[in-house]
Amino acid sequence: MTAVNPMDSASVLAAFGALGVLAVLFAESGLLVVGFFLPGDTLLFPAGVLCAGSAQQPPRLTLWQVLVCAAVGAVAGGQTGYLIGRHGGRALLARTSSRRVTEAAQRAERLLARYGYGKALVIGRFVPLLRTVLHPVAGVLGVPARTFTLWQTVGGVLWSQTLVLAGYTLGASVPHIDDYLLPLVALVVVVSLLPLLPELRRSRRERRERDESAS
Hints:
Residues 38-168 form the VTT domain. The chain is mostly helical. The protein has helices spanning 9-16, 18-28, 41-50, 63-86, 89-95, 99-115, 117-124, 130-140, 145-173, 181-193, 196-214.
């Protein structure tokens, strides 16, 4: 039996299909350090492509199953992350030695403060790394449970269904598109990182200003 690499979307989809989508999105949406190493966008888009059949090849995944599993995994993972944050999340974040986790937690806190709970929880779903830590941080900060549940559900469903359906639409309209999955996945990664650029520029500017004031 071939070993499954949970960080490789093709490996996960080949081994587990729609259930693999559910499991990975659950972990990626709220299990802090573990979620940082799992595919999210780069799993949903190829899953959608594999749901589209052609005259030469039938669909390798069933669209409704992938859509349901993606929504359940994203929403359940977000809710679990929130509960982790409410019950010991602050101590967990304080103990982590991962700089990526710490920086992402700081970005998540700034996002919640800047946009408000609803908008931040929806926007954050579309930003890699940030969405993994956003839900525990919301729990740590005491975001009301009803407000959190509503908006993380909206964000989780919108994010997961949009990417699956985008992959499906492209797979159904472009022949042999699955032959180009690797370049497409790379493109999805680049596009998903674009929302981080303003934040990175702002952080670099603030760091430069602190250095100048210190000198």
